[in-house]
Amino acid sequence: MAPGCTAKALSSAPKCRKAVMCLTEKICVLDKLHSGLSYSAVGREFNVNESTIRYIQKKEEDIRRSVHKATPESAKVTSIVHDGAMEKMEKQLNLWIQEMTTNKKSIVDSVVVRMKAKEIYSHVTQGQEKVKLFSASTGWLASFKGRYHMKNAKLAGKAGPADQEAAEEFKKHLLSIIHEKGYTEEQVFNADEIGLFYKNVGKRADIMPMASKAPGFKSFKYHATLLLCANAKSDFKCKRLMVHRAQNPQALRGKKLNRMPVHWRWNKKAWMASEIFRDWVHNCLIPEAERYLHSKNLAFRILLILDNAPSSLPRRT
Question: Which long-range contacts link 25-31 to residues 24+ away (Cβ below 8 Å)?
Answer without folding.
Answer: 26/56, 26/63, 27/63, 27/64, 27/67, 29/53, 29/56, 29/57, 30/56, 30/57, 30/60, 30/63, 30/64
